[in-house]
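I have been asked to look over a protein record a colleague put together. The record follows directly below this note.
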Amino acid sequence: MNPEQDYFPVPFETFPALDALPHLWAVFLRRVPGLDVRTERETALSRLAKIHRNALDAIGFSSMPLATAMQIHSPHVVRVALETPFPVADCDALVTTVPGLCLGIYVADCAAVYLADRQGRGIALAHSGRNGTALGIVPHTIAALLAATGASPQDLVVQISPCIRPPHYETDFAATIRQQAADCGVPSVHDCGHCTASHPEAYYSYRLEKGRTGRHLAALALTSKPPRPSKFFQNSATS
């Protein structure tokens, strides 16, 4: 298929723990069938950019600005608003209290970690692979979200996206993320359990594809009226 083509059906998944919250919308865009992404990161992202934007608009994020980060495998978190220039430099997690701003994180084996206040006061999205997890990006993001919202850890919901896992990877950083969130006092920690390297038909895997692959887009937004997915895009949730 032509990589310049605007429309590709984009399978995505959602997560029950986040679907249950009425004030936000969260999705994880999976591998785009038929799109050649066997190239380096920036070229793959350029091929995916308009496809991802069209998918977000069809799913229900239409007209929402997409807030992204440079993602440097750091412990740095930035609070963002509509006027923030994107992508945000030198950070791996974004926090907002602004409805209608879509937070976005790109991953292909690393975990996207969704964080939300049950009361709708704020959300956050973090990029947490082996290095970021070791540096404590998720605890730092929890602290930043609590500071931005005035919430307590008991008010938060944490959701871990598909990511690489043993035996395809030597480190189970998803288990470490779960423990880190629990150690921060968050009682509601969820992990979809899906391994990106185990299902190449559904997910991109940096390790399995030796760095020449695409990126998933994790998206999270505060909204007073949760959108509903377009019938033209497939919800492939299995969790």
